[in-house]
Amino acid sequence: MLAEVGVHKRFPDGYIYPYNIWDFARPSFFCPHDLERVGTLGDGGKVVCGMSQYENISPGPSSASNNAPELIVYSFGVSDDSSFEASLLERTNAKIWGYDFSVESWSEEIRGDQYNRAYFMKAGIGRSDDNANPPMYTVQDVMRMNGHSYVDIIKMDIEGAEFDALTSLIHFIQSEDSHGNMPFGQLLLEIHFMRDPQGFSIPKTLRSWVDWWESLEQMGLRPVNNEGNWIGDAQFGRPRFMEYTFINAIDYERNKLLPSQ
Q1: Whether the bond into 18 is cis, omega within 30 of 0
Q2: b vs e for 46-72, b when ≥16 Cβ sit within 10 Å of the residue's Cβ?
Q3: Looking at residue 159, what DSSP letter applies?
Q4: Where are the domains of the chain?
Q5: How does residue 69 score in pLDDT terms, banded at 50, 70 and 90?
Q6: In the prediction, which pLDDT does 105 show?
């Protein structure tokens, strides 16, 4: 792509035609189980690897009296659709922690009897905590606040803040353990190429984008599915938004999707 198109094209649009920037990030690995869309067909639903595996290990519905192992889920970016979270609560013994600074609570899909298993905080997720109102936390901050060393599923749809949030987490892990890997089993991530949200940074060159993507791979993440967000892309007239399903392919000890070794 660089040889044919050059290094001075405007990113990302200059690398969408005749080549496509997403060709650098094809989901060329396989989910070891099934792939299933969980939630609505719109922006709220996500494609999950191994939903049947989660149901077998942690059968639902979710409740305090359910003795099955808990499925720990973080939902970063809730907006006005909680169908994904509601489905997990119905089908598995999930406990879900949700964060979003743009809304006040879960959407109507989550029933009243599910609220004691779904915790919501009006807060943003990014690269550092600060004194903002609503507050801003890193992924590692909220894991520490909740007493978690590992999360089974992270859903992250945070409108461009994903680059800083995941980079911050990687730097934290590397500072703690040079041989560490991501503290979650699966990541459902929407990647946004758009104007930088206030206080956040988005890759502005092909090189910085590839470097960021490879940093995820180096931490053991492997893409097993992607799909364009055509509603978001319509705003730009080009495929600037992409939904990815990643699995942590190296954590055999904790990832419920992998066979124990």
Answers
A1: yes
A2: bbbbbbebbbebbebebeeebeeeebb
A3: T
A4: 2-248
A5: very high
A6: 94
Assess contact for 191 and 22: CB atoms under 8 A.
Answer: no
For residues 194 and 209, is the Cβ–Cβ distance under 8 A?
Answer: no
In CATH, the number for domain 2-248 is: 3.40.50
Quickly tell me which residue has 């189980």 as its tokens: 33
β 241-248/184-192 pair status:
antiparallel
Confidence of residue 129 (pLDDT cuts 50, 70, 90): low
The mean pLDDT value of the chain amounts to 91
Distance of CA 4 to the CA centre of its chain: 33
Is pLDDT of 242 > 90? yes
Which of 80, 84, 125 has the alpha carbon at shortest distance from 103? 80
Q: Which H or E run includes 51?
A: helix 51-57
3-state percent breakdown (helix, strand, coil) of the chain, nearest 5: 30, 25, 45
The total of other beta-carbon atoms located within 10 Å of residue 138's CB is 19
CA distance 180 to 203: 25
Q: Beta-carbon neighbour count of residue 144 at 10 Å?
A: 12
Q: What are phi and psi of 99, to 5 degrees?
A: -140, 130
pTM: 0.94
pLDDT bin (cut points 50, 70, 90) of residue 6 is confident
Q: Cβ(193)–Cβ(230) under 8 Å?
A: no
Kindly indicate the confidence band of residue 178, based on its pLDDT and cuts at 50, 70 and 90. low
